[in-house]
Design brief:
Length: 251
């Protein structure tokens, strides 16, 4: 096949699993936990490394920030043969119990973004694959880190979240944020909804594990709010989950 226009490579890599950070700078760190890691391709926001886990070829590919570039990555990776996707990202905590340094496993995402509306109507839920999520939970339990599993909010505007009061639509942003908190939403990020909806439409599997950087709502409540930029725990959890999934397929 011809090389994909955006990701820049074809189906010769042989990987059926892909770990997807948003940040191109995080790809090499993820690949460092593979056997025989090696640079594969770089085009636009899509940096790709290959390696092996449990004897199978695996890939780490950055998606860039937000739904549109994530949807393109999943579409084109699927065409090259990838069938299982795990987002390895960061998030801001929302629920009171979620602290910086924790892990959040997103089993569903609030579709407060625009990309997925061009796939299916808004009433269709953005949910993870149960096998992938179960593997992520099993891996998180082994990690020794604090972890949470539940719903996350997926948005398009980073500054709409962090400076809603200066936005003309701030009244809506603030009211919906309060609604998400009352409903028990764990965290906020920008890519999971697109990953889940596009994977669902294609017939692929997808899951998501996030490192919590901070929780501004804990600060507003006067609670301790540690800040952590270390995503090692999320990376290790995702890699272990892939090992578990490969082992399950071998049964």
């Amino acid at each position: 096949m011809e090389k994909m226009y955006h990701i820049g490579f074809d189906d010769s890599h042989g990987a059926r699993y892909a770990l997807l950070p948003g940040d191109p700078g995080r790809v090499e760190a993820i690949a460092g936990m593979f056997d025989n890691p090696r640079f594969y391709c770089q085009n636009r926001e899509y940096t790709a490394y290959l390696g092996e886990l449990s004897g199978q070829t695996i890939m780490a590919v950055s998606t860039g920030m937000g739904g549109p570039s994530t949807a393109i990555a999943v579409e084109e990776l699927y065409l090259t043969g990838v069938r299982t996707f795990i987002r390895v990202g960061t998030c801001g905590g929302m629920a009171e119990q979620v602290k910086g340094g924790d892990l959040v496993i997103a089993n569903a995402a609030i579709r407060m973004e625009g990309t997925t509306k061009e796939y299916v109507p808004i009433e269709f839920p953005a949910v993870s694959n149960i096998e992938v999520t179960s593997a992520l939970i099993s891996a998180a339990k082994k990690s020794g880190l604090r972890w949470h599993a539940g719903v996350v909010q997926c948005k398009d505007s980073f500054y709409g979240q962090h400076s809603p009061e200066r936005m003309p639509a701030g009244y809506e942003l603030l009211e919906k944020w309060g609604a998400w908190l009352k409903a028990g939403c764990l965290a906020s990020e920008m890519e999971s909804a697109a990953l889940y909806i596009v994977s669902q439409v294609l017939g692929a599997r997808a899951g998501c594990v996030l490192s919590v950087v901070w929780n501004k709502d804990r600060e507003r409540l006067g609670l301790d709010s540690p800040v952590s930029y270390d995503s090692t725990g999320a990376i290790e959890t995702a890699v272990e989950a892939v090992r578990l999934l490969i082992a399950q397929e071998a049964l």
